[in-house]
Design brief:
With 342 residues, the protein is an alpha/beta fold. It is built from 14 helices and 7 strands. The radius of gyration is 30 Å and the shape is elongated. Belongs to the GPN-loop GTPase family.
Length: 342
């Protein structure tokens, strides 16, 4: 193994992360007693990392035992204590160097490498689940790398099949004062929702700079949004007008909250909504899991029945081939004459 390959190896194995295990807890936990896993997504500059810092402060203040996982391999420093950090497993700069990649390609490759052992992360969290209330997953600022990659799907589905899971989508409120920008962000949020099918919470961040009241009005009052669009006479505004009709149902079935990561305003309300996502998960995604499990079990039984049927057919063919055919009268007469001669 050369020096470059050694740099791609984990600086310490995942099994030695700061995760205490309780080997005596063998009984599976009921769904409502498992920690809620929250995957935090957001565009670059939305304040996602600052939100994570505020979340970390809140759970310590309220005494909620939680685990935080950092999945951004390119960040220099995180302002919170991550229990599991991708940087401890994959060297982002060495990945870029060895595979001749740019920044985005390096992040994607690092995430792909980490996802191959994410089942270990899930197992470690599961061993500690009895003592946890929440699990927060901080993702890269290059949101498309996580949401549209195979590794992102592996990680999100790996969590969702083991714990009640929700998506927290962080939006930069000051940047969305334009109705066109707001519509673009909502379309992206809608696409993530339909791709993951997980309970979804939109967090409007930086309300200490710009209040999010105008966004609430746009989402609840179709005419108010159309009035805002009327001020922009461009092709994009015409497109946004058409898309707003499509997103009307999306607005009715989505939870939103305004938060200031700097002052802490709205954080408590955000946690109340997160707690409600457990029931939503149980009523939606978990039911899909049960249906898929029934389908797999049905397919398994059907395959077993088919294998048994084929085995019985083969057995009958074998018996038929090995069984002597009844003798004719001439053959019996010949046997009788042979016996007389003897």
């Amino acid at each position: 193994m050369n020096d470059e390959e050694e740099n791609l190896q984990p600086s310490r194995p995942i099994s030695t992360f700061n995760l205490e295990t309780t080997l005596d807890d063998k009984e599976p936990l009921p769904l409502d007693q498992k920690p809620i896993a929250c995957i935090v997504l957001g565009m670059a500059g939305s304040g996602k990392t600052t939100i994570m810092q505020r979340i970390n402060a809140y759970i310590h203040e309220k005494g909620h035992p939680s685990y935080i996982v950092n999945l951004d391999p390119a960040v220099l420093d995180v302002p919170y204590g991550a229990h599991i950090d991708i940087r401890d497993t994959v060297n982002y700069k060495e990945v870029m160097k060895q595979f001749s990649l740019g920044p985005n390609g390096g992040i994607l490759t690092a995430l792909n490498l980490f996802s191959t052992r994410f089942d270990q992360v899930v197992d470690l969290i599961d061993k500690k689940a009895r003592k946890l209330d929440y699990v927060f997953i901080d993702t890269p600022g290059q949101i498309e790398i996580f949401t549209w990659s195979a590794s992102g799907q592996i990680i999100s589905e790996g969590l969702a099949t083991s714990f009640p899971t929700c998506i927290i989508y962080v939006i930069d409120t000051p940047r969305n004062t334009s109705p066109i920008t707001f519509m673009s962000n909502m379309l992206y949020a809608c696409s993530i929702l339909y791709k993951t099918r997980l309970p979804f919470l939109i967090v409007f961040n930086k309300i200490d700079v710009v209040r999010h009241d105008f966004i609430n009005e746009w989402m609840k009052d179709f005419e108010a949004f159309q009035d805002a669009l009327a001020k922009d006479e461009s092709y994009s505004s015409s497109l946004a007008h058409s898309m707003s009709l499509v997103l009307d149902e999306f607005y009715e079935n989505i939870d939103t909250v305004g938060v200031s990561a700097m002052t802490g305003e709205g954080v408590e309300e955000m946690f109340k909504l997160i707690d409600g996502k457990c029931k939503e998960y149980e009523e939606t995604y978990y039911q899909e899991l049960l249906e898929k499990e029934k389908e797999r079990e049905k397919a398994k039984l059907e395959k077993q029945d088919e294998d048994i049927r084929r085995l019985e057919q083969d057995f009958r063919r074998f018996n038929t081939a090995g069984k002597k055919q009844p003798k004719t009268e001439d053959e019996e007469l010949q046997d009788f004459l042979q016996d007389i001669k003897k």
